[in-house]
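haha ok so turns out i had the wrong file open the whole time. this is the CORRECT one, sorry everyone. sequence first:
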Amino acid sequence: MPKITHLLFDCDNTLVLSEELAFEACAELSNEMLAKHNISERYTGPDLMSTFVGQNFRGVVMGLQSKYAFKLSDAEVDSYVSRELGKVIETLEAKAEPCVGVMPVLEELYKSKKYGLAVVSSSALSRVQASVKKVGQDGFFPPDHIFSAATSLPVPTTKPDPAIYLHACKVIDKAPGECLAVEDSKSGTLSAVRAGIPTVGYVGSYGGVIKQKEMAEVLKEAGVKVIMDDWSQFMDCLGKIEAM
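then structure:
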């Protein structure tokens, strides 16, 4: 395995506890969309999160259209995505917190200068920037090393498409095998693994031991190299992958 030089972190529920907050706004707009098309199904934030975790809202909209067989115009999709982004950013700027235990790890990595650090997210760039700034993580990442599948690419996409990881590798001028990703979702893991990046699966943001064990199996099946229950285990996980 090539020497790992760069660490690529997912944002939502990996660096920042943001998924639950974001899906509250997603559910409100999703239900509006369904009602407009005379579909009786309604979602809560947790319902929507369990189905679409790791995807951005554009991916949620596409998934709902496929599941319930209705069609929005491109302009309607763009309108919903724009409205969702505003609602989510407002909520994150008020309520977002860092994932438990991540700050000391980022501080140690930043001070060591041994690895380049980047954020690779499905979420819109402005949302990711708002999240890391709110929790005091923005100083760890160069502004041009925060990547968004919704914003950074010529054609917006979402994980599990590997495009955003491949784009990040191109920008930082590193081969995928020289990087390590940290992901908490199946879609995020598939995105990194399909790009050829060894991946740590983080399950610490899932509530309860049973759910964490379930997600550990999901992420293993998706291709993670090791599972991390708590950020205090990160350096050991990194060492295991570097020794492979």
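Strands lie at 6-9, 16-17, 97-98, 116-121, 146-148, 179-183, 199-202, 226-228.
again sry for the mixup
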